[in-house]
Automatic annotation (TrEMBL):
Gene3D superfamilies: 2.30.30.30, Nucleic acid-binding proteins
Organism of derivation: Flavobacterium hiemivividum
Record-given protein name: Elongation factor P
Keyword terms of this UniProt record: Cytoplasm, Elongation factor, Protein biosynthesis
Pathway: Protein biosynthesis; polypeptide chain elongation
GO-annotated cellular components: cytosol
GO terms (BP aspect): peptide biosynthetic process
Length: 188
């Protein structure tokens, strides 16, 4: 049993007969009344996000997890296949367990959280950013640059990302996996 003081990002807990992962949290100590913790929880079974408030000192059921490094092999329909880099054991995970499956490139390394009680994978932690090649981008039109103009571009994984007008086909760009937004152009 853990309490609200142990809450941190990435913590997996049992709540309402389901397993949730804490995405965001905020300890709030108002001037009047008791302290509380405002959280944003993601269900690891169906991917739904839930806002919840725990009062200070509330007991929560923590789920013990182990993190293992896996390499993404290939997608097959809604299933994504991964291989453990130490034991070479392969697993198949559903698309909705992944945070941003459209940014996952074959050969990419990810951290998979596995429930120690049931040995079932719970979630996949992507790297903070990925570098992908732009396969299609509309040409930028000179004069359309009033302030921070963007255009839609398609990257090698098939994802659509808003990029600045100077990005062209063949450019490699760095993308933030948490928000799916453009970060910078990568020079080689």
């Amino acid at each position: 049993m853990a309490s609200t003081s142990d809450i941190k990002n990435g913590l997996c807990i049992k709540y309402n007969n389901d397993i949730y992962k804490i995405i965001e949290f905020l300890h709030v100590k108002p001037g009047k009344g008791p302290a509380f913790v405002r959280t944003k929880l993601r269900s690891l079974t169906n991917g739904k996000v839930l806002d919840n408030t725990f009062s200070a000192g509330h007991k929560i059921d923590e789920v013990r997890v182990e993190n293992h490094k896996f390499q993404f092999l290939y997608p097959e329909g809604d299933d994504f296949h991964f291989m453990n880099t130490e034991t070479f054991e392969q697993i198949s995970l559903n698309k909705n367990i992944l945070d941003s499956p459209d940014l996952l490139k074959e050969g990419e390394n990810v951290m998979v959280s596995i429930n120690t009680e049931t040995d079932l994978p719970l979630s996949v932690d992507m790297p903070a950013s990925v570098i992908l090649e732009v396969t299609y981008a509309e040409p930028g039109i000179k004069g359309n640059t009033a302030t921070n103009a963007t255009k839609s571009a398609t990257v090698e994984t098939g994802a659509s990302v808003n990029v600045p007008l100077f990005i062209n086909e063949g450019d490699k760009i760095k993308i933030d996996t948490a928000s799916g937004s453009y970060m910078e152009r990568v020079k080689e």
